[in-house]
Amino acid sequence: MQLNPFSGVYLTDPASAWRRILDDPDRVPYAEDLGLWLISRHVDVRHALADTATFGNALTLAPIYEVCPEAMSVIVQIDAPPTTAAADPPTHPRTRRALRATFANTADRAEAEYGAIVRRRVDELVSRLVDRAGRRADLVGEFTTELPLLVILDILGVPDADVDQIRRWADGQVALIWGQPDPDEQVRLARGLLEFWRYCQDLVRRRLDSGRDGVDFISRALTYRDDDDTVLTVTEVASLAFNLLVAGHETTAGLLAHALDEALSRPQRWRALVADPRSVPDFVTETLRFAPAIDGWLRVTRRDVTVGGATIPAGARCLLMIGAANRDPAVFAHPDRFDPRRPDAADHLSFGHGPHFCIGAALARLEAGVALTRLAEAIPGLRLAPEHSRSFKPNVSFRAHHTLVATIDIHAPADGPTAAPAAATEARAA
Ligand code: HEM
Fold it and tell me: Which residues form a coiled coil (predicted)?
């Protein structure tokens, strides 16, 4: 089986590749060029995500290709201990407990602890767009990537002045691990990642020196450890910050861009959101299913395992194809239809499943809900520019738009039905 996530149709219409893999008679094919087993069916992906005894996380954050020696000599200096997506038992249950205690991971906690931050940041960004009424804006550069980054920096207590640097480092990490950089680029990105890790260590050190009585995540994690390394080490606090700064922004940026793309590429859908903001949460859930921000996630087998008739040997890397699983006709009727009213949209696997289930799912939903509601209120005439064309950055895991060029029109659209049930269920590839 061939799968090239870095060029061709996968960058404009990934759903056609997901369909091909779901229909493959081998059921779990091996992609020789990537060196990855492709697990695509909902039942298999869900099982693999939760079965940590068979599917380990040790290589989840390791580059998917053979890194050149010069870049590798830099990468080995990044001695961040595994705490989240790369951690296995017995470490993971302990670090996960720490994360649950210090990071708001339910809808109520996220609203109580982060609601004010999210609303303030959304309002800032929306008013900047409103100031440009009548003109074009790239919603990716000016909204969808900005909001989650600013929010996660606020939560961690990181100064705004560091925004640009962190954005570059985090984008670099996504390209270094799941992209296809050439050797020179690998070295540059690896150096950036090492600087980023040192920055996180320094952030924690400074917080220790200044007293840890703040309400930010780092202060809370330091208070939680209470000087007890068996609970959490200081280096593990830095590693949590290192992970959250990337996980908290690259993912939600994708969700926001996909939601706006789905809404604006069918103007009836946008009008429906403008007319009835109560429909926003269902719209967000269906976006998560239909166009997941992470559409493939890595695991490594810890022992031989048979999945869908294929025997995968121990030590093999597997790509859990969340995007394909979310389109599995065995679970979702008419899976290629975007339908915010489908009753089972929440059965998507876009936040994972089991012990590693995304800790930021509630925050991501909060951000997307507030963002869409405020944008619909303030810019009801928002629409994609005619010259806009959809394309995604080449990556095995993160599905990110290059741009989303739109016209900022603060007037309500003059005509067209406000709610369009037929259009809301039109089929379209992601
Ligand atoms: C739409 C937005 C997001 C998506 C699609 C997403 C997706 C995912 C996925 C697929 C996983 C792996 C789950 C598994 O292995 O079972 C994950 C884990 C994780 N996510 Fe998210 N995420 C999002 C937002 C966030 C946010 C906002 C944060 C934090 C601020 C965050 C932090 C994490 C962390 C720390 C983990 C690792 C958890 C663990 O290993 O215990 N994510 N996420």
Answer: none
Coil/strand/helix, residue 173: helix
Query: Is 364 near ligand 1, meaning CB less than 6 Å away?
Result: yes
Question: Cα angle vertex 33, ends 29, 37, to 5°?
Answer: 30
Could you tell me if 300 and 59 are in contact, meaning their C-beta atoms sit under 8 angstroms apart? yes
Rg (CA), the chain: 21
Q: Does the pLDDT at position 418 exceed 50? A: no
Cα-to-chain-centroid distance, residue 71: 25
Which domains are seen in the chain, by residue range?
A: 8-424 (1.10.630.10)
Q: Whose C-alpha lies nearest to ligand 1, atom 24? A: 360
Average pLDDT in the chain:
94
End-to-end CA distance of the chain: 22
- Confirm or reject: Cβ of 335 under 6 Å from ligand 1: no
Other CB atoms within 10 A of residue 65 CB: 15
Residue 351 CB less than 6 A away from ligand 1: yes
pLDDT tens for residues 119-135?
Answer: 999 999 999 999 999 99
Residue among 290, 430, 294 at smallest CA distance from 351: 294
Within 10 angstroms of residue 426's Cβ, the number of other Cβ atoms is 13
Q: Which of 90, 207, 197, 100 is nearest to 157 (CA)?
A: 207
